[in-house]
Structures are given as structure tokens and as C-alpha cells.
Amino acid sequence: QVQLQESGPGLVKPSQTLSLTCTVSASITTNYYFWSWIRQPPGKGLEWIGRIRYSGSADYSPSLKSRTSISRDTTKSQITLQLSSVTPEDTAVYYCVRDTYWGQGTQVTVSS
Q: Given strand 4-7, what is the order of strands in its sheet?
């Protein structure tokens, strides 16, 4: 069973870059696994942000692609999400996900 733990600042100012880290209890290079970031704004449904493959390549939601970067540190089994030029609409609980395994989520609020 794999465990995922998100971490990062709970408050970000508008126009800044949000950076979150997902620390995984297992290898993130195991073949054929994808590691995703998903968020849920208050009162809304889940939104897929993007994913990074076991190989290191990444895909992004078209609506967020211009502001999103997902990277990894294989030595630390960590996956990082960066979202630039944030606005209050980026306020959400952010989750790190692999298959049916979800982190507990981390609340991010964008506010001045």
C-alpha cells in the first residue's frame, strides 16, 4: 500500500506561484504508474490538473497548461506541483493521487 502526503503553504498571494510537494512512501519510478494532481475548489467538483509518468514526462489540463509545471525528485520520492500567476479562483484543496490512492489533501487559499 502506498501513502501520499501533500505539503506546502496554506496561503498564497495573488500573482504568486503556488508550489506543493507530494511525498510518496514508495518509488515513483515504478513502471507504468502515473502520479496526478487534482484539486477541488470550495463547493465545486474535482478538477484534474496534470500528471507525471513513471518515465518523467508530464501531461497537463489544457485549461491550466500555461501556468502548470509538474516535476519530480526520484531520490526523495517527491512530486512537485507549481502553479503560477494564481488568483482567488485557484483556492482549493489539492490532492496527490496514484490510481485509487489519494493523499489527505492540502488546503490552499489565494488571498492578499
A: 4-7, 18-24, 78-83, 68-73
